[in-house]
Amino acid sequence: MKFHPSSRPPGFTLIETVIAIGVIAVLLTGFMMVFAPAAAGIRKSLNVQEIDRISSTFEQEMVTLPTDSSTYPTGFAKAFAWIKESNTLNTALLVYQYRGSLSSTRPDGTPTPVPNIKGKLPGKDYVVQSMVRRKSDTKFVNEDLPAVEGGVYLVKCTQLVFKNGQLILGTAGTIADPKGVAGTAASSDDYPEAVIAFSADFFALPSKAASYFGSGGGFSKTFTATANTAVKKPVFTRNLAVRR
């Protein structure tokens, strides 16, 4: 039997190459249709976890007294004042995380900030500490800022009160009997209930530089803008509560 060598050169023809490209394109399209929603779901899940962490931290820290506190007799008294005065510029509430030392604390009992982590190990040399402070707590805020991890959030609180059997927003800057019986309360001693329910608006701040929070910085402008949510919207809102 005599074999005749093929005159066709080795390799793929143009038709075969086009078909292969088409198949790959179809497979990639199908992969992206499946992967894109999954990736979006993962990002959403991570965002929800972050929001839950921030709001949970805020709720707990509101009733936590520093070790050197003589201003408030109880954590509830502190929360009462902070909720009531959170809509005032100087007593605005800031929530963030910062790197704190494992071997050194400050007079208020919080870890000393660790701004420079070169050569240091998390869990051994420092820990990430959640914190809520008033803007007026200038000394500690300025110490914390260089060690902040992530963003800084401004939080504005408004009490929730009952109306027609539902909880609705009360008046910002006041704490009242939520049932509308005893009027407004000047202090936690005058408040008739065991729980203050409130709505907290969390606003992401554009900077964590000390100059931003100082006199003449941009914080004052941002704070004013948050009074109109059409101008500055909160990144999220949570209904929370503090108990005696």
In angstroms, what is the radius of gyration?
28 Å
- Spans with pLDDT under 50 lasting ≥5 residues? 38-46
The helix fraction, in percent, is: 25-40%
Overall pLDDT, averaged? 84
Q: Write down how many β-strands occur, each being a DSSP E stretch of 2 or more residues.
A: 7
Largest sheet: 7 strands, antiparallel
Pairing-aware structural class of the strands and helices? alpha+beta
Helical run tally: 5
Q: Tell me the overall shape.
A: extended
Question: In angstroms, what separates the terminal alpha carbons?
Answer: 102 Å
How large a portion of the residues is in β-strands, by DSSP E? 25-35%
Describe the structure.
About 4% of the residues have low confidence. A hairpin with a 5-residue loop joins strand 1 and strand 2. With 244 residues, the protein is α+β, with helices and mostly antiparallel strands. Strands 1, 2, 3, 4, 5, 6 and 7 form a seven-stranded antiparallel sheet that branches. It is built from five helices and seven strands; from the N terminus they run H-H-E-E-E-H-E-E-E-H-H-E. It has a domain of 124 residues. Helix content is 32%, strand content 26%. The protein is extended and about 90 Å long.
What is the strand and helix layout of this fold?
Blueprint: H1 14-61, H2 75-85, E1 93-105, E2 111-113, E3 126-134, H3 138-144, E4 148-163, E5 166-169, E6 195-204, H4 210-213, H5 219-225, E7 236-243
Antiparallel strand pairs: 1-2, 1-3, 1-4, 4-5, 4-6, 6-7
